[in-house]
Amino acid sequence: MLEDELLDCLGHGAFRYFVDAVNPANGLVADRSRKDCPASIAVVGFALSAYTVAVERGWLTREDAAARTLVTLRFFEASAQGSTPDMTGYKGFYYHFLDLQSGKRLWQCEVSPIDTALLFAGVLTAAAYFNDATSSEVEIRALARELYGRIDWDWARNGKAAVAQGWKPECGFLHYGWQGYNEAALLYILGLGSPTHPLPSLSYVAWTATYQWERIYGCDLLYAGPLFVHQFSHAWIDFRKIQDSFMREKGSDYFQNSCRAVDVQREYARRDPNEYGTYGPDCWGLSAGDGPGLGTMRVRGRERRFFEYVARGVPFGPDDGTIAPGAALASLPFAPVLALSAVRHFLEQYPEWEESWQLPSGVNPAAPGADSRGWISEGSYGLDQGLAVLMIENYRSGLIWKLMRNSPPIRLGLKRAGFRGGWL
Asked: Mean per-residue pLDDT for 359-388?
């Protein structure tokens, strides 16, 4: 296939997840395609953003996408907020997992600032895209402003400098926060940009003070092991040539840092320090994802320990031989030639993926599976498919980046975080 045809197939295939996995009555989207799976608010955020891509690519009409968006926003506007365990959210934030039908909290999960941030990245994308004077699009913008204004970002600090990772009605705030560079960049920028209950600038400074700058394989970069960390915030924010004080000091920016992270991933795969014998220049991508979950067993004369869903990373692990193909695809804006080469390699090895064009969460040729190709994750994950839709489109047209450049909360949040230069 030519590049455009391949990306059409991959983008459309990934988008179909949100058509198949949505509850049309409330707009909630299942976390994964397995039976009886709950909704994930982060996946809903990816869905809201993906609807705008679908309109531009002709997969949905503008009217259909606006209607889907309205159903979702109306659900969150009407959902129950409170400190009792059976609510949908608290202080404008939402629980990580919700019942796909009722929209209420499941699994005694936490009120999640980071997943709420991913949800609202989608809400703000919708508000920026649906800018016509029709009644539907006017209501989308009004609901987005109302919902975003409800969030008490400052409460999420629990009186401390940095944001806590969560809160539960049974025990209060979780006793750990965000440490080191991670996907919380989006969270802090949205929190700083709030017109009602913003985070103070000192919270962003406190978070960046935990950064870890490393030299790995001759490459200087802000360290984070899993690839998704270098991708999630970039799905919405164009970090090219804009810098905060940390990156100004290092003479880099977060986009360039993600490019370097891809180089480190490929070099790790080339070296294959754990000697799986399955990695290579076109077989790379350690990230958060599904895994064999088989425990410890002997494979090819060596004891190997396999994990279930975990954030795998390089070069410090964990590494059980599992690759996340979607992580290579989502690297498209940072290293298009390398990412496409890896994706073509995966499709040659697993041609059946072309039936759905949805890359699975993980593959592990070193673990026992249904055939000689090893273990393959079952079904699809919403986060993987949403990230694929957005990063393919950012590479091709920059659509999401352009929309969010003009989003007042994003611009204000970046400036309050100390970003300057470039398009900002």
From this structure: 94
